[in-house]
Design a protein that fits this description.
six-stranded mixed β-sheet; DUF3298; Actin, Chain A, domain 4; Heat Shock Protein 90; DUF3298 domain-containing protein; PdaC/RsiV-like_sf; signal; 30% helix; 4 helices; 2 domains; alpha+beta; flat
Length: 221
């Protein structure tokens, strides 16, 4: 009996934790079908961030990204009729303390041609928090050296072309003291590997500390 009670308590705690995490945002669905194109997207919109102004900026960027990609698909379908374009968008939200990453993966196909690209919206949810780009947080020179080491050591991630370097808009998230870069399909490996994720230890790469407490600067009178 005691064992059943403990299991029930654990289930309640796990459920509560999941609800708490999901309550920060809601998942939206967009489905549009025309003769020459289809759009199917799942994406988050934040509703309960601490910084409401930042929340509006983040949500705007998410919607703007979707509309831009959908617009490209519709234009392509109008320019090249006959074989429909299919656009699927999937999203994931990663949290490391107050640092959030919205990973948005676009899968676009036409006939037997497929491509997948990844973007991210990264931000710190705090007073004065901002949307952060990769180069805002990390030393790109050091990062390129570390990523090249990882790619050279893994035969599955070796592309036919030499590694051109980490793009400044490469999608990323942070997890367990690692920076995880997500590359586009075909960017660093054969397309069969989808959108490869490359984790790199974060130590020594940061320009500025993430999740550091922010001390307000006193006004001068």
């Amino acid at each position: 009996m005691k064992r059943l009670w403990v299991m029930a308590l654990m289930l309640i705690l796990i459920t509560s934790e999941a609800v708490s995490a999901e309550s920060l945002y809601k998942i939206m669905h967009k489905d549009k079908v025309a003769e020459d194109w289809e759009v199917h997207a799942d994406y988050p919109l934040f509703t309960n961030l601490e910084n409401e102004e930042l929340q509006n900026i983040v949500n705007h960027r998410i919607i703007q990204k979707l509309e831009h990609t959908a617009g490209r698909v519709q234009k392509g379908a109008a320019d090249f009729t006959g074989v429909p374009y299919l656009y699927y968008e999937e999203s994931a939200v990663y949290q490391e303390k107050n640092f959030y990453s919205v990973i948005m993966t676009s899968h676009i196909s036409r006939g037997n041609r497929y491509n997948s690209t990844v973007t991210s919206v990264n931000f710190e949810d705090r007073t004065g928090g901002e949307v952060k780009k990769l180069q805002d947080l990390f030393d790109m020179g050091k990062l390129n050296k570390e990523v090249k080491k990882v790619l050279d050591a893994d035969p599955d991630l070796r592309a036919e072309q030499p590694f051109a370097g980490v793009r400044e808009n490469t999608a990323f998230y942070i997890k367990d003291e690692h920076l995880v870069l997500i590359f586009n399909k075909f960017e660093v490996a054969a397309g069969v590997h989808g959108t490869p994720e490359v984790p790199v230890p974060i130590k020594g790469l940061l320009k500025t500390e993430i999740n550091a407490p922010q001390v307000p600067i006193p006004s001068v009178t």
